[in-house]
Amino acid sequence: MTAVDDVVQIRDLTKTYGSLAAVDGVSLTVRRGEVFGFLGPNGAGKTTTLRMLLGLIRPTSGTVSVLGRAAGDPKSLRRIGSLIEGPGFYPYLTGGTNLRTIARYAGVPASGVGPALEAVGLADRAGDKFGSYSLGMKQRLGVAAALLKDPELVILDEPTNGLDPQGMRDMRELIVDLGRQGRTVILSSHLMGEVQQICERVAVIDRGRIVSEGTVEQLRGETELELVATPSDTALATLRALTFVERVRVEDGRLLVSVGVRHTAEITRALVHAGVSVTGVRRAERELEDVFFDLTTHHDGSTDQKELSHV
Ligand SMILES: Nc1ncnc2c1ncn2[C@@H]1O[C@H](COP(=O)(O)OP(=O)(O)OP(=O)(O)O)[C@@H](O)[C@H]1O
Known about the structure:
Layout (H helix, E strand, L loop, with lengths): L5 E12 L2 E12 L3 E5 L6 H8 L7 E6 L2 E2 L3 H4 L2 E4 L11 H12 L6 H7 L15 H13 L5 E5 L7 H16 L3 E6 L2 H7 L2 E6 L2 E7 H6 L2 E7 L1 H10 L5 E5 L2 E5 L5 H10 L3 E8 L3 H8 L16
Parallel strand pairs: 3-8, 3-9, 6-7, 7-8
Antiparallel strand pairs: 1-2, 1-4, 4-5, 9-10, 11-13, 11-14, 12-13
Helix pairs in contact: 4-5, 5-6
The chain binds adenosine-5'-triphosphate.
């Protein structure tokens, strides 16, 4: 993978507000053509990062390169469509007129309005007033506005927020379509299920810091090994003594070991060596949600779980 394929490069990005580090040393890379998930609980620093990416706010420190240029460079902004704060639409104008107005202000030809409405499935409602749209339609019009420039990079900040299940499904399909069209998409979300369904790679942010980055499979691959071993107290002590074992917990008589897959053989060897009889070994598939929970559980015992929800 060459640097040319990196659409976004963020290095050591920090934004502080007084004593609060809203974004704290974030580094991440988004590659051309991928649908990238930026996952984190409310207040984790997603919007702040995305706003710095667009040059809407200035970093306290660190660097951001988007489409090979500094954040906010007009030459790259022309190639980026974004839905961050939700564009201000006029409720008494139709969807189509709203988009034509935005196109005019953005210096984009009005010929882009039709395809943008088509892309979000609103072509047949273009003549209806924005005020009469459902929330899902309003959000989709927001995405249409982001598509007016026929952008290479689309940045969507929590686009399914507040939508009902059908609206969420429509939005997810729309995002998958954007990816199929060869656009690079950055999707921020606090919904693990959503990201799991549509993103190839994911960065998990919590309290301003990236706590994990990789493919959904890789994140899940920080797996648990499920063991049935007796005597369990010797097994537990043996496992806890192994430096590459991150965590061990006991559940329904089984030992659940957080460990890289490559250590499976070493683990069984160590147990047998300690006189433990191992009667079952299985790699437990973890839902991204569980991974996310582990990653965002804080050492002080608090979690952001209350902020998380299912799709
Ligand atoms: N202009 C600001 N002044 C002071 N604090 C801010 C400002 N903008 C953001 N913050 C704080 O920075 C932290 C990160 O906020 P941010 O909006 O980036 O989080 P988020 O992950 O996008 O969350 P959400 O999903 O709730 O939008 C929060 O604690 C927020 O209160």
